[in-house]
Amino acid sequence: MERILVTGALGQIGSELTAQLRHRYGGENVFATDKRDECPANMVETGPFESVDCLSPAQIKQAVSQYRIDTIYHLAALLSAVAEARPLLAWDVNINGLLNVLEVARVYNCAVFVPSSIGAFGPGTPPDNTPQETIQRPTTVYGISKVAGELLCDYYFTRFSVDTRGLRYPGIISNVTLPGGGTTDYAVEIFYQAIKKKRYTCYLEPDTRLDMMYMPDAIRAAIEIMEADSKKLVHRNAFNLTAMSFTPQELSQEIGKHIPDFVMEYQVDPVRQAIADSWPNKLDDSAARQEWGWSPKYDLSKMTADMLKVLAERVARGEL
Ligand code: NAD
Ligand code: SER
Questions:
Q1: pTM for the complete prediction?
Q2: Would you place residue 37 in the very low, low, confident or very high pLDDT band (cuts 50, 70, 90)?
């Protein structure tokens, strides 16, 4: 991993992953791209950035050949709630965008990181300690695209020896870039509202349990799996991953330990509630632990304390 391309680099994960990759491999060696071109100053000041649309094979090919890329972190996608609103676009970006990246990777001999999701599971999946290999019959276009993406990555590895690797991320909680339209976004929004207004109206029911992860763990996982010994990877493209599992009510109670007058209200959005209800409560991530040594560092209490600290600092600096 010496010359890296990141697609979707302006998104929730991409913005922080790009910074960490540049810190680790050198700014000039990490080429950040996104369909959007309105780019924060720190992204252009720390390394190359260009607008690249993953639906354009020519633009991906140009980026990979020009910068002599050997590894692609493919993050460009539409998330679950946005995908339900625009299913055809979601299919196009999540499947054809991925295929374009895999084809260029095949021709230019690149390794590829592709995140899947807890959304790759459905109502028929065992919800507790969801096994690594189990029923995958998702009911959302996002989930269907994620299952197909996992299989495409397997196919490019077995058929063409492209070094594809990936994780089934849970909801990611972060404090730099707001999430891009997923079902788990409440677990980020709640912290911003808790800091600014001491109250939050949640669009999921109080007892909706989902897997979650703090961004530092999510980024470390992406780098660790790409640096892992290929010979030890049995599952390669769709490792179950988790760090914590909680409900909106439990998160509200944890925030209440720091902000005693925090108020949580509920106004359920039936679309996102139905999506959340179709996803597991808690994944079994033992394959990731065994095959490449995965171990999360943040649980609910540690993540909550850090989120509130960082966001309070951002408020004090006038950033929020
Ligand atoms: P995001 O929505 O925050 O960012 C996605 C980025 O992709 C955006 O900046 C968008 O401009 C860009 N994009 C959209 N269409 C594009 C195109 N045609 N060409 C190039 N760029 C395009 O998403 P994220 O949260 O950073 O997620 C990144 C990946 O991780 C996705 O595959 C997502 O499914 C997966 N994932 C995320 C989470 C999470 O909680 N954030 C959880 C599970 C899996
Ligand atoms: N956080 C993502 C979403 O809700 C999970 O893939 O869409």
A1: 0.98
A2: confident
